[in-house]
Write a structure and sequence with these properties.
about 0% strand; mainly alpha; MetI-like fold
């Protein structure tokens, strides 16, 4: 009886936490579907008085700017994700399975870079990108996003869990280093690759500081910054919620596409046995 009561309260608490977590998303969705333009809402006035898609029509009717912002977001999100996943996996494989002088020193040198706040490097990065002519270009996002120390560390932990006997068997069968990496390591590391891909895409898609600092032209804005500029021009509650839904959808789709590998990718390498 006591156990049933504890389970009951446990489930009630879980349901309440889920409702609290989902509430902002529900408000965002219904706010974007409200046919009445509102500039201020209360806890009881956010529910639509009439459902309509006119808020989406308003956002999507900004001419060629919207399509350009979407294109920019796709370029600075998809390309760094693809190159980053491959290079992070390659570096993770090298640091996890290869033996060479100074390996640990180089690895921990890279790890020390994580301790440096991104804000501390903004000025030096801007001066460097300006000297290279990368301001208002895609290069300011594509080149730095080719690999990330944190994701390299995640892939190192993932690949370290692969039995050495499996790699040795591939070498005995005549596979070289590249073939072993491409045909053995990468397929076995799908959970880790999917996790890194999700994190990388979300980080690049939601990048606000980079476009604000390294782009001065509106046509180079990504979708997040572009919609934020629209919110400043027409700061209605409905416009803000609509912009939130539009920027959220791609991340949700990417997560749903890779979610079956996500948990495995997070936990792999954390338990030995």
């Amino acid at each position: 009886m006591k156990k049933r009561i504890l389970n009951f309260f446990f489930y009630v608490i879980c349901i309440l936490l889920c409702l609290i977590f989902l509430f902002p998303f529900v408000v965002m969705l219904f706010g974007s579907l409200d046919g009445e333009t509102k500039y201020a809402v209360t806890l009881t006035s956010w529910f639509p008085t009439q459902f309509s898609l006119k808020q989406y029509q308003s956002v999507l009717s900004v001419g060629g700017r919207m399509s350009r912002w979407v294109l920019n977001s796709v370029i600075i999100s998809v390309i760094p994700t693809i190159t980053g996943v491959f290079l992070d996996a390659l570096l993770g494989y090298i640091f996890a399975k290869k033996r060479f002088p100074g390996r640990q020193l180089i690895f921990w040198y890279f790890m020390a870079a994580i301790m440096v706040p991104y804000q501390a490097t903004i000025v030096s990065n801007y001066l460097l990108y300006s000297w290279l002519g990368w301001i208002n270009t895609y290069w300011a996002f594509l080149i730095p996003g080719m690999w990330t120390v944190l994701y390299m560390f995640m892939m190192r932990q993932n690949i370290a869990a692969i039995p050495d006997a499996l790699l040795e068997a591939a070498r005995i069968d005549g596979a070289g280093e590249w073939r072993t990496f491409l045909q053995i390591v990468l397929p076995v590391s799908k959970p880790g690759l999917s996790t890194v891909a999700i994190f990388s895409f979300m980080n690049n898609w939601n990048n606000v500081m980079g476009p604000l600092i390294f782009t001065t032209s509106e046509k180079m804005y990504n979708l997040v910054v572009g919609l934020s500029s629209l919110n400043q021009q027409s700061a209605s509650f409905n416009m803000q919620m609509t912009a939130g839904v539009i920027t959220f959808i791609p991340m949700f789709l990417v997560y749903m596409a890779f979610q079956k590998y996500f948990v495995d990718g997070i936990t792999v390498g954390s338990v030995k046995g």
